[in-house]
Design brief:
410 residues, alpha+beta, Beta-lactamase
Length: 410
Amino acid sequence: MREYNAESLGFDESRLERIEPFLKQNYLETGRLKNTQLVIARDGKPVHYGHQGALRDDGTPMRDDAIFRIASMTKPVTSIAFMQLVERCKVAVDDPVAHILPEFAKLGAYDGGGGAVPFAPMRRGEPMRFIDLLTHMSGLTYGFQNRSSIDAAYRDAGLDMTRTGFTSDEYMTTLAKIPLEFEPGSRWNYSVSTDVLGVAVERLSGMSLGDYFQKHIFAPLGMTDTGFTVPEAEQDRLTDAYGYRPGKEPQLVDTAVKGRLLTPATFHSGGGGLVSTLADYHRFATMLLNGGELDGARIIAPKTLDLMTANHLPGGADLTEMSDSLFSEASNSGTGFGLGFATVIDPAKTLMPASKGEFYWGGAYSTAFFVDPVERISMVFLTQLYPSSIYPIRRQLKTLIYSALTDSYA
């Protein structure tokens, strides 16, 4: 990846040079992470690129074109795909979900009771709308949160897995048998909402989600290595994936040699199924930075993207006020949520360098990206450690990046 002169783009190069030693000393040498890849850019031009560690558990060195599981960094791609269909007036953001996904026509919120599979009476309120899916205010959940009987029902049904063995129709049929946690629009809860949104994209377009992505997003952007399956010819570029173990080295949880990603997926998980490379996701982030366009390819209109990156939480609330589970922590103060992205609404409350209107998301394997439209900065960070909540590496990277910024546009 070509690097541009950092000084000419408003960065202190000597401060950017702190980043790789920091990652090495605090994460690679300690055994916390097996690898890292990072690109920082301004106006789409990389001012810092680095990679360290091993591609695989056998010590194969990391390579520039390594393929990573990006998990929930799939969600912004799916959200962009849906909003493309909104732009074509095939659907509206405030349409009831059941108009496209009739499986949800009779779905309501859980009304008490216990057990792993709750079939107690369900309250009927306002119907779930597509905006509820985009904002994670749908009443759906993730089983891995381990908080409620609804979560338990998701785990029993295998609904969290990006490679479920279901077809899209089977996924929807299974999901529709489980009540919502709450009335749509009333609370915020991280969930399989974007998987459901991906099924809606399939039904609206008449294409598989992977084919839709390829035609309308990946091919126009030149994202040649992003998809739901790793081709056999590219298997040597796939990373191993690891799971956190307290006080021990990370445990190998998915190998490149025998991993699930080498066989075609029956269900294209819009919430977490993609693999990608640093170069590919950098192109996606640069498109977002440019207001929806890259190298002459218009993916989404600027005003549509403005709508997506605005805070849609009721009353201008942040995640700490609306979430009862994940992302309710104080570290999410000053952070709202839009149509597929978290967005900074009060930089001072975040207690770290940030710009109002900055938007971002990450993935379960500790990957992350952000786009700062004020300072024209983007970052993509890739590694492979599950879960993503163990270390404060995203916050540390942001601190290191902004401490190297010398020429502010704000």
